[in-house]
Amino acid sequence: MKTLAVFVAGAVVALLATPGMAQQARGIYLGTGAGVNIPQTQGWDFSNPTTKGRADVSLDAAVAGDVYIGYDFGAFRTDLEASFRQNDISNVLFGFDSFRRGRFAVPGASDVKVDVDGHERTIGLMANVYYDFEFGSPFVPYVGGGIGVGFNTWKVKVKDADIDTEFSSPLFAYQGIAGVSYSITPNWAANLEYRYFGETEGNTTSGDTKIKVGAPNNHTILAGFKYTFDFGQAAAQTVPDSPVTTGERSYLVFFDFDSSKLTPEATSIVASAATDALRGESTRIGVTGHTDRSGTDAYNQALSVRRADAVRRQLVADGVDDTLIAVRGVGEADPLVPTADGVREPQNRRVEIVMN
């Protein structure tokens, strides 16, 4: 647990210390995480020809981990995940409804605590879907959920009762996910997330004893990293170092892939436009947002508006009267460089400032 705490603390410090970068690329990604799994108490019902009762099985917190491969479509992404959890049984509290002596039924006893050696091990195979909340920031909150199967194995050993058994059962599994991703580079991201991992009930037998295992429920906290492949499109992250003008009173402001955050170069271009607007006493300033052709039309339309609004806010911060600025987004409809659908062309990720 001490090692885990150091790992998580280091990940948090890295997130806070790393300067803001572009949002992540889109496409195939690989990832892994490690953290802690905290299982809830399980209720086991058992019965045999002489005894009937229930056991509340408590398990210790322990290290957990996962690996996954997926595809990022933009706001939505999906992946296939393999996870591992193994938690030791800490103690078992038995309650007996009844037991038999000879031909007679005898009332049971309750709250009999028994020290048990053993563990529950779960290998989960899940299909997950996520929604990322993009705000033009390197921090991207997300929510998700998944379904799949948990391959569970329980090992139980009670010396005083001469019990030493191991049994396995595949169970239907589901999970809810909430977390935040931090884009270190366009391809690398760090994640910190919570997963509620639940399964259905299981049934097994041990000798002549039938056991119904209560639905396992787990609270898992993971920190990890994700790498997204760009397959040779790294040039799409390039931002020009100097203003590009289309005329005497026009400016182009370029953006990183799938981002509405102004880069330092873009901020400098906007400042130059603001200075010229104040000096030239402009009566109208048109701010038009554009995107490249990767992504859906609806998503790109919304992204173009966010880019235009980011430029408007910076112009106002630089002293331009907000009432002079007209903002609109045209999505991917008016590319500076014509391309096929799906192409990440850096010159098309822009905002045009036109002053009259």
From TrEMBL:
Going by the UniProt record, its keywords in alphabetical order are: Cell outer membrane, Ion transport, Membrane, Porin, Signal, Transmembrane, Transmembrane beta strand, Transport
Specify the superkingdom.
Bacteria
Carries keyword Mitochondrion?
A: no
Q: InterPro entries from the entry?
A: Bact_OuterMem_StrucFunc, Beta-barrel_OMP, OMP/PagP_B-barrel, OMP_bac, OmpA-like, OmpA-like_sf
Kindly list the places in or outside the cell where this protein is found, as annotated in its UniProt entry: Cell outer membrane
Segments spanning the bilayer are: none
**Signal sequence bounds:** 1-22
- Describe its membrane topology: Multi-pass membrane protein
Specify the OmpA-like domain's residue ranges: 242-356
Q: What is this protein called?
A: Outer membrane protein OmpA-like peptidoglycan-associated protein
